[in-house]
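Below is how a single chain appears once it has passed through the pipeline. First comes the sequence as given, then the structure the pipeline wrote out for it. We keep one example in the README because the format questions we get most often are answered faster by looking than by reading.
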Amino acid sequence: MKVTYDRETDILQLVFTSAPVEESDEDKPGVIIDYDRDGNVVGMEVLDASKRIEDPQAVCLEIA
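Resulting structure:
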């Protein structure tokens, strides 16, 4: 998984797999989900991330 935050565009991007994006849907305003050709989620973008996420520059990974 890859997490990228672009301060200039204020977009937080999460990429779950390297599969090519076939389709993208903005399910909720400002949240775009990317799908591969089989309908699997490959990533997502959060637009205006600084307004939607407490600290888009902080990442905490927890393994249970």
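DSSP finds one helix and five strands in the chain.

See the next section for the split statistics.
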